[in-house]
Design a protein that fits this description.
single chain, 351 residues, mainly alpha, 2 domains, 9 helices, 83% helix, 0% strand, disordered C terminus
Length: 351
């Protein structure tokens, strides 16, 4: 029996696919929430706090300086926790999908695979809950996140052992990949994913060149200039220098977001291509979905990059593109939920 048709892996694959896509969807929701609410509130509050600090330093008001720095610290922590949750649950979703794609190539038993699948699901929930609860309730909850990470590490190690022990798996690998990519929609997602990965690497090279060419030095120079202006009692010039520092930092962060979103969406498309048979949607419908998802995946990092480098209102295009991507991911969740464990051919039927 080929690796792709091992009945012992079907239930575990289905659990991992459904949970993995759901976690990616939750990551998208958090990203949209961050873009629409958290980012704007935090940036506005931090800008006001920095302005207040400059004015307070000029008159020697140390109490106000401490209060405003506390505001900056709190807003930074809030933004960091949301982004941490966003990135962790998204990465965990991709990991669950990757494990689902690898399970047919392992030598693990049916019971081990089922236990592995539910352990991964539970570990992601623990990690996500620990990160958020550590900020909103008690920092000791961070140990929940550590426990979840440990379980995920163990799960990956078990799959790796299963891959290493399976002597006949390597012989089936070519047939396995070909059978997973026999759908035109799967091949479309594969090509789009590889192309987006390449473009993400090129953008990363460009951003690295910006840092080397002096963008980071300009940011640090702005801080030094603000101190010099304060020493000269020129509060307005100091506030202007800090505003320049904030803009440079924001530009660097948003450029990094444009760089990071592309490869993540590319990996998601590649994994969907390999797991097409676990998504019970008609081929024609899934092809239309693939075209729409690939188009939006290319558009999102483009809008983010254009927003900070050319016209800031492009951020609205980016925000609504994120909403559309989340809606399309709901379609995949629906298809994964419809997939029957006992019917390996369901994905090829018309919806």
């Amino acid at each position: 029996m080929s690796a792709d048709n091992r009945p012992s892996t079907v239930a575990a694959e289905r659990i991992l696919v459904l949970s993995g896509v759901t976690y990616v969807f939750l990551a998208m929701v958090l990203g949209v929430l961050f873009a629409f609410v958290v980012s704007h509130v935090a940036n506005s509050g931090m800008k006001e706090a920095w302005t207040g600090i400059m004015a307070a330093v000029a008159i020697g008001d140390s109490t106000t300086v401490r209060e405003q720095f506390a505001v900056i610290a709190d807003l930074s922590a809030m933004r960091g926790r949301i982004m941490n949750s966003h990135s962790h649950i998204g990465a965990s979703g991709l990991l669950a999908l990757l494990l689902a794609a690898l399970l047919p190539l392992t030598s693990l038993s049916r019971n081990t695979l089922r236990l592995l699948a539910w352990s991964v699901v539970s570990a992601v929930i623990l990690q996500f809950a620990g990160v958020l609860c550590a900020y909103y309730f008690d920092f000791q909850a961070i140990y929940l996140a550590d426990l979840g990470a440990t379980i995920l590490f163990a799960g990956v190690a078990i799959v790796l052992c299963g891959l290493l022990r399976r002597g006949e798996g390597a012989g089936d690998l070519t047939t396995y990949v070909q059978s997973r990519l026999n759908s035109p929609a799967s091949r479309l997602l594969l090509k789009a994913g590889v192309t987006l990965l390449l473009l993400g690497m090129l953008l990363g090279s460009y951003l690295a060149w910006l840092i080397v060419s002096g963008e980071e030095t300009q940011s640090l120079s702005a801080v030094a200039q603000s101190v010099e202006h304060l020493m000269e009692k020129d509060v307005s010039a100091a506030q202007s220098a800090i505003a320049n520092f904030k803009f440079t930092q924001a530009k660097s962060g948003i450029n990094a977001a444009a760089h990071s979103h592309g490869p993540v969406l590319a990996l998601f498309m590649l994994l969907l291509a390999l797991l097409r048979h676990r998504i019970n949607l008609g081929e024609r419908f899934f092809r239309l979905f693939s075209i729409a998802f690939a188009t939006l995946s290319f558009a999102l990092p483009l809008w983010i990059f254009l927003a900070i480098n050319f016209w800031f209102n492009f951020r609205f295009f980016a925000n609504y593109t994120g909403v559309l991507l989340a809606c399309l991911t709901l379609v995949v969740i629906y298809g994964a939920a419809r997939s029957k464990a006992e019917n390996n051919d369901a994905a090829g039927e018309e919806a």
